[in-house]
Write a structure and sequence with these properties.
The chain is α+β, with helices and mostly antiparallel strands and about 500 residues long. The protein is built from 15 helices and 17 strands. The protein starts with a strand and ends with a helix. The relative contact order is 0.09.
Amino acid sequence: MGYRPTIGLEIHVELSTASKMFCGCPNHFGDPPNSNVCPVCLGMPGVLPTMNRQAYEYAVLMGLALNCRIATFTKWDRKGYYYPDLPKNYQISQYDLPLSSNGYIDLLVNGQTKRIGITRAHLEEDAGKNVHDLPGCTGVDLNRAGVPLLEIVSEPDMNSVPEVMAYARSMRQLVRYLNISQANMQQGHMRFEPNISLWVFDDAEPDGGHYTPIVEVKNLNSFRSLERTVAFEIDRQAGQWQADPDGYRMDKMSKQNRGWDDVREVTVYQRHKEEADEYRYFPEPDLLPVEIDDAWLGRIKAQLPELPIARYARFRKEFGLDEKLTTLLTSERGTADYFEAVVQAGASPHRAANLIQSQGLRLANERGTDVAGLGISAERLAGLCKLADEDKVSATTAAGIFQAMLESDDPPEKIAQDRNLMQVSDTSALEAIVAEVLSENGKAVADYKSGGKKAKKARSFILGQVMQRSKGQANPKVAGELIDRKVLGQT
């Protein structure tokens, strides 16, 4: 007997609208508790909700990016919710007529493409937050209550931890590409709920078998906790099945919800998993259905950018970049846009990519921004790339000039000249330095000339002395050619 993990993922994404889903309160993280509330999101009697059009359009945009069928008619439903962080005791959501369904996303996992089906993506309102760090009581902060929340439900098409992580990271990348969510997990903008079971089968008959009971782990808010949760739950279910192969079956046990204990790194039983009828869904009487026509859908579709996997493939083909560098450049839309602007301004793709990777992303991370936010225009960075490609500055010097450009608006060539950083490629100027170094290092010259095991090391030593004597300004290529010619008589 063997088993195969079968995993689906529900992802909740808070949308970056200015106001909440059904009222005009600000949608803003970090404000004082209960400062962004009104009678609507507090559930006061007699108040009426009004739909946030921007949130709906953001949700449709995501549905299009996920290759979903967009419903021309969708409605709102009430879902029973009996917890203090949503005081009206129900959540406005979508039940049987979600705004998008039947889509897919393609992932790159270990160099292979894997397609994950999307069951549905629907809009709802978020709940508030219970605060447990007050002495002797629990506080409730309702600033988040009513914030637009997009729930994306996958098919159970993932069969390993790496596939789950690739899917989760791709979803975060996608909502950022679309600019519909900051997807900052520290601020609760994105939360994961994996559904995990095992398909148990006989090796002789892999199509015949059974599932272990589905476990849904609730409210994971980091990639680390998601990865460890799925890995632990696969091992836990495998152990339970091996201990009770006849009893630990989906047809004999109910589904269950579990939570993740981040201290002990285990999942903990919470309750049996609710079915749809337990939520007591019924149509929301205070909101009109939404009907979208071709013109409205066309305007939303026109906002779709080139999506990450397509951009990755184009960068590999068009610019000849390796897999690792391409992944890095296309991870954020702003970085990819900036790189392309630098290339369009005249930089060679490889030089631009390497400078952005080695300097731009590091400096941006230190300053809490993206590469474009550093304030170095694409034209100025392209100018620096040209200096390096023409051997007017070394790669090491180019890195220093990049950092200097943060403090100066001067062109990179002027910065290099003012700081005496331009490489010396004039052979007449270098010949005297090379001659001096050779005359002072007879043993190294002899070792290099011998062509033996020490030759390569001797040449590097001689070149290093020339670079040191020239204070790093000698063009290493030109200096190396001069050394070869003088020691070996090469032309």
